[in-house]
Design brief:
The chain contains 5 helices and 4 strands, in the order αααβαββαβ. By secondary structure, it is of the alpha+beta class. The chain folds into 2 domains: about 40 residues, Arc Repressor Mutant, subunit A (Orthogonal Bundle); about 70 residues, 2-Layer Sandwich (Alpha-Beta Plaits). About 20% of the residues are buried.
Length: about 150
C-alpha cells in the first residue's frame, strides 16, 4: 500500500496525541472526519499503523531500566526468548547476533526488585548460560512508535 501526505499527517498527529478524536484530526488537516476514519481503518488493515495505549515505565513507578544480554546453552535461543518474554518485568526481547544470543530490556521498581527478578525468575529459565546486564544511566531516547514512516523524497 502506498502512503500519501495525508496518511503521514494523520499518523504524525496521532503520535503526538493518540487520544485525539477523528473530528479533531480532521479539523487540523482540513478534511472530513469520515476521511480520517477511513484512512485510519485502511492503515490498520494494511498493518502500517495501530492505535494503542503505551505505558511510560517511569510514570508507572519503575526506577530501574536494564539491558540484559543472554547467552544460551543446550536449548534453542528462540525457546529461551519466549520464556523470558512471558515475564511482566521484560518489555522487549530480541534474538541478536554477536556475543549474546538474546537481548532483553527489563524494568524494576528498585535495585532489590531487580536483584530478586534476575536471581529468582530469570535464573529459573532453562538454557541460560550467562547474563550480561547493563544498567541504563540515562534514557536519551524512548521511542515507542518504533517504525519511522517518513517517506523519502525520490
Amino acid at each position: 500500500m502506498q502512503m500519501d501526505d495525508l496518511d503521514q499527517n494523520i499518523i504524525d498527529l496521532l503520535r503526538e496525541d493518540g487520544r485525539q478524536s477523528n473530528q479533531e484530526v480532521a479539523r487540523k488537516l482540513n478534511v472530513t472526519a469520515v476521511t480520517v476514519r477511513s484512512r485510519i481503518k485502511r492503515l490498520e488493515q494494511a498493518n502500517i499503523m495501530r492505535v494503542v495505549a503505551v505505558t511510560d515505565f517511569a510514570a508507572a513507578d519503575f526506577d530501574v531500566l536494564m539491558a540484559v544480554g543472554v547467552e544460551v546453552q543446550n536449548r534453542k535461543a528462540e525457546a529461551v526468548a519466549r520464556d523470558l518474554a512471558a515475564f511482566e518485568q521484560v518489555f522487549s526481547v530480541n534474538l541478536v547476533t554477536g556475543l549474546e544470543d538474546i537481548e532483553m530490556l527489563v524494568v524494576a521498581k528498585d535495585f532489590e526488585g531487580l536483584r530478586e527478578f534476575l536471581a529468582n525468575e530469570v535464573a529459573s529459565v532453562e538454557g541460560i548460560r550467562k547474563l550480561s546486564p547493563a544498567l541504563a544511566l540515562d534514557v536519551l531516547k524512548y521511542q515507542f512508535d518504533s517504525a519511522p514512516l517518513k517517506q523519502e523524497s525520490a
